[in-house]
Amino acid sequence: MVDLEATGSSSRRNRVVEVAVVLLDAELTVEGEFSTLVDPEGPVGPTHIHGIEHHHVLAARAPRFAQIAPRLLRLLRGRVLVGHNVGCDRAFLAAEYARVGVEFPAVPEMCTMRMAALRGTLPGALSLRACAEAAGVTGWSAHTALGDARATARLFTRYTTEPLERHSHGRQPYAVGAVAKAAALDWPQMAAVEAPWVGRRNTEVARRRNVPAQQIVSYVGNESA
């Protein structure tokens, strides 16, 4: 699972400001969770949506994308790219890697938004929040990269384990062989010039309580919770 928060909606003009990865094994069990704020090297964009302010990035000494790119590639290597509206996440990843001179590989992908649309059980809304609520997925921090990635993982698990005969649209396109295709891809190599990943706590709650920046952001090395 991958989720990004960005400074805007255009992958060409805007930058990633937070990234999260939740790794699932073949049994759909969580193997690890990783997240970091990212210095967009400019304005952070819609704070009212993602809750990230410029001083959070500064106080955390958030790494630039180039500094997290090698490790992110290692996390995604051999994996199927799964997200909610995953095409948007892929576009931002491809644009960020292009800025550091790396071509992001054509990873097999699966999209929980498409899965929800094929189920035909929602009244038109396909946002992550609407899909999660319809599937009984609750208790997550919306519009934080890690919160959204966790919710997407739960939604994906629900969709892939729920009996398909309940739905009128028949068999779901669950990308048979996608894992094998991902494993066979030729992934680029990057020099390991890296910086620590820097997670955040619940920025939304902190913003409401006007908590100082140094209490909002926490440093994480290998994983973030």
Give the tags.
two-stranded parallel sheet; globular; three-stranded antiparallel sheet; 225 residues; disordered C terminus; 12% strand; 10 helices
What's the short version?
With 225 residues, the chain is α+β, with helices and mostly antiparallel strands. Helix content is 39%, strand content 12%. A three-stranded antiparallel β-sheet has the order 1-2-3, with helices on both faces. Strands 4-5 form a two-stranded parallel sheet.
Order of strands across the biggest sheet? 1-2-3
Counted beta strands: 5
Distance between the termini: 15 Å
Which runs of at least 5 residues are low in confidence (pLDDT < 50)? 167-173, 202-225
Helix content: 25-40%
Order of helices and strands: EEEHHHEHEHHHHHH
For the largest beta-sheet, the strand count, sense and barrel status come to: 3 strands, antiparallel
Output the number of helix runs: 10
Strand content: 5-15%
Q: Name the overall outline.
A: globular
What is the arithmetic mean of pLDDT?
83
What would you call the structural class?
A: alpha+beta
Radius of gyration: 17 Å
